[in-house]
Amino acid sequence: MSHSLFGPLTDVQGDAGYEAHPPRMGFFTDTSVCIGCKACEVACKEWNEVPEDGIALSGMSYDNSRTLGADTWRHVAFIEKPLNPTTTDLGLPGMGPPGWQNGDGSPGHGDQGAASGEAGVRWLMSSDVCKHCTHAACLDVCPTGSLFRTEFGTVVVQPDICNGCGYCVPACPYGVIDLREDDGRAFKCTLCYDRLKDGQQPACAQACPTESIQYGEVSELRERARLRVAELHEQGVDVARLYGADPGDGVGGDGAFFLLLDEPEVYGLPPDPVVTTRDLGSIWRSVGAAAATLLAVGIGSFLGSRR
Amino acid sequence: MRERAMVPEPEFESYYGRQIIKTPTWKTPDVPLYLFLGGLAGASALLAEGAAITGRPGLERVTRVAATTGAAAGTVALVHDLGRPERFLKMLRVFKVTSPLSVGSFILAPFSGLSAAALASNLTGRLPRLGRLAGLGAAALGPPLASYTAALIANTAVPAWHDAHRELPLIFVGSGASAAGGVALVATPVAENGPARLMAIAGAGIEITAAELLKRRLGMVAEPYQRGRPGLLMKTARAMTAASVALTVVAGRSRALCALAGASYVTASALTRFGVFEAGLASAKDPKYTVVPQRQRLEQRKAETAAST
Questions:
Q1: Which of A110, A225, B110, B137 could form a disulfide with A94 if both were Cys (CB 3.0 to 4.6 A apart)?
Q2: Residue B165 to residue A286, Cβ atoms within 8 A
Q3: Rounded Cα gap, residues B285 and A181, in angstroms
């Protein structure tokens, strides 16, 4: 089987028709060192000239950009959960007023791994982005060919071709791409295609002060991510796990994957996403059977009412 | 008696209760209307060609008009739904089997042309052979036109649509057949409407059966088809479809009762499309339908791996 629609794919660009091409590039976002500074959001907007995405307070947390969309290509999620006493202190800066203390009187961290105390909260921060899937549903369903696979294995919209049909929007299993309201066309992260062509790294990765966002060859990033998880497990952070790094998953692995400290759905990510085109054969077979049924109904209607 | 839930609401985690996938940006009424018109036009083209072959000129005229105006109005609705309507021709720039919208554009465009040509020939009496050939072409494209729209919405990450990809095509052709039969019942003399009656009844049966199968197979993912506004639309559609069948059976040679039954079929078909469309929107907006089935899948896989080692 060719695995063009589903399953592991070793040469994404080759499958898309590129003969000679650079290695597949992507992101490894290590959320265990994210400090929620949002420099990635700002750098992305500045470089890509992404319009303002609503200047309003969400009221739910320090997250006011809320979700990825046509005008938000990097989105920093903030999660507040009651402290889990089994986690380990990573020594990261936390929340709370100066001098704030944990329930047991120890100095308050309130951070994403702070130990002990029932009064505190655990903070998770994660910079979300387009996953640049191995099997990208948005690209598969695009009827105009506006969405395409680049030589770097990333998925990019060509705004001069997009006619705003909106098919990519409900096709994405992660809810990344969306139509820009006043413009009518679909927009999302390009993994800074223009910068990549100049041998530079994407704006968000360059701006990230803690190297939470790491840019590089996907194969190399996957290896680095495995080592990082092993390191965290060794330190007792058992909750660390990779998300989107497995080429055997429902989208053939993500070009932009993550190290998470909780279940994916806590971050607003689908726990087991599957590209819709996995079922394309079954879908078209069902349509064919239904079309044949209608033809039979048509013929039967005349045969059954002979005068 | 108040309805009581038999299964407790599943517990799941989410990011501040926010939805995970995006709500489809397709507009109401544009897209559900197109789903309805595509079905009506496709099945009407079949009736038209059958009428031409079996010598029912009244039925042929009515169904050719329905096929042509249905396709034309559907195309207008589709183009109006685009974020950049002036770029509608970009649809024909490439052909992609992975995109039902692309495949559908290559069904809708020739169908519209062929059914219009057949109608023009029928109305003017000119080029009768070419007209019939065009009609035959439209009839061949009719069943694909009436069914591909199910692939259009099923080939998404929307749980209530994607998971229903086996039943939706049958619901759509059933709904299309009853709409086409319904229009013909409204406007055709009783002497010629036999095939329209049969098509409407068969379509109604297929639609109701397939909708029932969908509910049973999908479990909690099918909830949006039964709750709230889409649930009301679906229930009303089913009741009207069933009533239309009963009316068709008792109508006999009464032109008025036939017309009433026909109008009821058409309304029910449209309600079904709006119900299916809105059920999809509801299932996208609630993170439950994205998280819970995926979480169950993961747990099941974990259990299987544990069992095999």
A1: A110
A2: yes
A3: 18
Which residue out of A165, A187, A258, A306 would a mutagenesis test of the B interface target, given it has the greatest number of B Cβ atoms within 10 Å? A165
Cβ–Cβ under 8 Å, residues A214 and A202: no
Which is nearest to B241 in space by CA: B281, B198, B161, B182? B182
Supply A187's token pair: 């927009």
User: From residue B146, how far is each of A170, A295, B60, B152, B185 by CA, in Å?
Assistant: 22, 11, 19, 11, 19
For residue B190, the one-letter residue type is: V
- The answer to whether B150 touches A286, Cβ cutoff 8 Å, is yes
**In this structure, what token pair is assigned to residue A215?**
């840019």
The rounded radius of gyration (Å) of the Cα atoms in chain A is: 23
Q: Measure A2 CA to nearest chain B CA, in Å.
A: 15
What ipTM was reported for this prediction? 0.97
Global confidence as pTM: 0.93
Q: How far is A200 from chain B (nearest CA, A)?
A: 31
Task: Report the C-alpha dihedral over residues B21, B26, B27, B33, rounded to 10 degrees.
Answer: -130
DSSP B97-121: TT-HHHHHHHHHHHHHHHHHHHHHH
**pLDDT tens string A86-130:** 555 565 555 554 444 444 444 444 444 444 445 678 899 999 999
Instruction: Give yes or no for B105 touching A (CB within 8 A).
Output: yes
What secondary structure does DSSP assign to B247-276, as a single string?
Answer: HHHHHTT-HHHHHHHHHHHHHHHHHHHHHH
Distance from CA of A73 to the nearest CA of B (A): 14
A 162-181 → B contacts, CB under 8 A = 162-167, 169-179
Candidates A5, A239, A297: best to mutate against B (most CBs of B within 10 A) is A297
Identify which of A9, A29, A12, A32 has the alpha carbon closest to the alpha carbon of residue A21.
Answer: A12
φ, ψ dihedrals at A51, nearest 5°: -65, 165
